Structure formats: C-alpha cells, structure tokens
C-alpha cells in the first residue's frame, strides 16, 4: 500500500497537545486502518525514521522539534456483543474516550461511568491504565490488539498480559514497541453498587441523591471535574502532572508524626499512597506563576501553560517542585505525562 501521499513534512503539533506548546513533527501521518498502520511503520523502517505514536496529546510533553515519523491513530470502530450477563465492547483506538463513556451510559452499559471527561482516545487509555474516582481501566479491560513493531505482526494482549499497575502498563514500560489498534471492554447492564464514591458525596448530598444510578454518577463526575480541573481548551495542561507517590507503611508513620494532616490512602499491603497535590500544596506552590507556566490555583497537582511558553520552562518548574517536595518530605515525585519523544 502506498501511503506516501498521506505523509506531511514539518507538521505543526501545537494544537495536537493539550499543553499547547509549540511543536513541529519532521514527518506526520494520520492512519485510519491497520493496513495503513503497517504501511506507515514499513515506510519508517525503510527510511530509518524513529516512530512516535500520538493519540489525543493530553498526556505528552512535546519537545519543540520531533524527529522521525509521528503516527496518529485515527482507527474508528465500535462493536457490541451482548450476552446474558455482560456486554463486550470492541473499540477502535481512535475513538474519543469521553464520548465512549457518554455513549455507554446512554446505552445503560455500566463500568466506566466514573471515568467520564478524561481527555484523549481509547488507544492511549491502556498505556497508563487511566483511572478516576476509584475505578481503573484494568477493572473492565479484557483485550488489547496491537502491532508489535519489533516483530511486524499483530498480537492480542489479555488483561494479565498488559501488566497493569497504578498509571502503568507494559505499553508504557516499552514505549514504541506496541501500537494499540483496538481495545475490548467488558461492561455490565447491572451497576456495581458496592463501589463507594466518597469524593463525589458532597455533590450527591447537594442534589439529594441517596443511591446514584450510572447517569447520576457520570453527571457528578463531569460536574466535579469541571469545577476542579482546568479545561485544556482554555488553559493548557496535561491533567495531574505527578503520580501520587507510594511509600512504605514505616515511612508513612514517620511522616505522619511530623505532619499529622498528611493525606494518604492504603495501597498494597504494607504501603501507603500519598496525595501528591497535598505535598506540593504544603510547599506553597499552589497558584504560583513563573512567566508562561505555573501551578493551577485550584489544584496543586496540575501544572499549566498560560501560552507563549516552551516545554523547557515547565520542566524547570516541575524540577523545582520535585526538589522542594523531596527536601520537605524525603519523597520523590514522578512525572505522569510522557516526554515526547522519550528518546
Ligand atoms: C484535564 C486533564 C485531565 C486528566 N485526567 C485524567 C484522569 O483523571 N485519569 C487519568 O488516568 N488520566 C488523566 N489525564 C491524562 C490523559 O487524559 C490520559 O492519560 C489519556 O489516556 C491520554 O490519552 P491521549 O489520547 O491524549 O494520549 P496521548 O497523550 O496522545 O499519548 C499518551 C501516551 O500514550 C502513547 N500512545 C498513544 N496512543 C497510543 C496507541 N494507540 N498505541 C500505543 N501507544 C499509544 C503515546 O505515545 C504517549 O506516550 C488527564 C489529562 C488532562 C489534560
């Protein structure tokens, strides 16, 4: 298949990353099928171009110049298979995540209603095992289909094969190796009433909702997120900039003595997950602005780009935040968005 006519040289990506940093890709192609993907990868390999995979650009830190071939996955597909107790939903990697969640709620398919308004596309969702309000993608994902770039063939990953962890997966650990083309979810017509949405309780109280259904959970999530997080269309950002650090129970106990207000949640046995936003807040970063970048005034975990700046400014700010949190708490903050390109 000849795809050279679809390749653009010196392609601007400023509007293709939610931080809105200026960026130009040496070569760019948007592919709409697996056949086009194979042709694009073959082209890159023949011309010895590094391959960079892009979806919605909401979790990447784009360098000003990106060498190689940027491949954006625009594969669209939505296939439903219903059985007595569950719904299997196969989705093309290019489908919009939030619109998918909205559609599932409308159909009465439960399982992802608390992950509404997460920006980006379906194909990127397994990469960092997206999650919100106590739910993670790994809870509903059954299968991922991806091109193995090293072997040149398509393979299927079971949930286990994806090696999911908190904001992590095999796809994130081996960047560039697998290009996801399809994701299959297992949803249910019956809502799981055992899930508690403590973070949404205020909203439910205010709206006199005692037993929220999936539409009400979705509405609550969207309303709460809109009140707390900046809209990337208005203010450049990549959502949470740092992961919540996981520390040992003994380190947690030491910190708790010094900081009785410390915000933390139980993680794996023997470990606690600290609220990174709280740590940053204690170091007085919330609302701080440095020229074109800053820390969001309502949520210290979100770094923002006011426009006219460059990635380097944001990385310097992130570095200084990491240093001050380490100095105060002896805790390392790990960045959540991926440097693009990573090498
Ligand atoms: C306002 C805001 C709120 C957010 N809230 C949340 C949240 O609550 N929870 C959460 O988990 N995340 C959140 N995020 C982060 C982000 O939305 C998710 O990580 C999302 O899944 C990224 O999707 P994307 O399509 O934009 O991916 P991109 O940013 O384009 O890509 C992300 C990474 O995945 C790789 N990738 C993309 N597509 C593929 C593919 N098809 N195959 C292989 N690799 C691929 C890219 O190379 C890159 O390394 C938020 C971001 C913003 C801006």
From TrEMBL:
Principal subcellular localization: cytoplasm
Residue stretches making up the FAD-binding PCMH-type domain: 21-190
SUPFAM superfamilies reported in the protein's UniProt record: FAD-binding/transporter-associated domain-like, Uridine diphospho-N-Acetylenolpyruvylglucosamine reductase, MurB, C-terminal domain
Taxonomy, superkingdom: Bacteria
GO biological process, one term: cell division
Role noted for this protein: Cell wall formation.
Entry protein name: UDP-N-acetylenolpyruvoylglucosamine reductase
Lineage, uppermost ranks: Bacteria, Pseudomonadati, Pseudomonadota, Gammaproteobacteria, Oceanospirillales
């Amino acid at each position: 298949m000849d795809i050279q006519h679809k390749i653009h040289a010196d392609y601007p990506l400023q509007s293709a990353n939610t931080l809105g940093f200026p960026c130009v890709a040496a070569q760019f192609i948007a592919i709409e099928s697996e056949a086009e993907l194979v042709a694009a990868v073959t082209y890159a390999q023949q011309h010895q171009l590094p391959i960079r995979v892009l979806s919605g650009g909401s979790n990447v830190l784009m360098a000003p110049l990106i060498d190689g071939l940027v491949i954006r996955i625009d594969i669209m597909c939505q296939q439903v298979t219903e059985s007595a107790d569950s719904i299997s939903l196969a989705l093309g990697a290019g489908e919009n995540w939030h619109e998918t969640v909205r559609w599932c709620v409308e159909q009465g398919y439960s399982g992802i209603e608390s992950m509404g308004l997460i920006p980006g596309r379906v194909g990127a969702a397994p990469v960092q095992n997206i999650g919100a309000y106590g739910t993670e993608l790994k809870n509903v994902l059954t299968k991922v289909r991806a091109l193995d770039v090293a072997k040149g063939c398509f393979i299927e990953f079971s949930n286990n094969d994806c090696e999911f962890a908190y904001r992590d997966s095999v796809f994130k650990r081996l960047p560039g190796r697998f290009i996801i083309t399809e994701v299959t979810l297992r949803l249910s017509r019956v809502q799981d009433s055992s899930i508690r949405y403590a973070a949404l309780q205020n909203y439910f109280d205010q709206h006199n909702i005692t037993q929220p259904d999936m539409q009400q959970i979705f509405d609550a999530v969207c309303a709460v997120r809109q009140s707390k997080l900046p809209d990337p269309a208005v203010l450049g950002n990549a959502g949470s900039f740092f992961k919540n650090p996981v520390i040992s129970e003994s380190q947690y106990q030491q910190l708790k003595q010094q900081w009785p207000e410390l915000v933390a949640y139980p993680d794996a046995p023997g470990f606690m997950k600290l609220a990174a936003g709280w740590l940053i807040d204690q170091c007085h970063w919330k609302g701080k602005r440095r020229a074109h970048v800053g820390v969001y005034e309502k949520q210290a975990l979100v770094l923002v780009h006011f426009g006219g700046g460059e990635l380097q400014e944001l990385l310097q700010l992130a570095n200084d935040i990491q240093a001050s949190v380490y100095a105060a708490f002896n805790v390392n903050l790990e960045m959540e968005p991926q440097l693009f390109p990573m090498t």
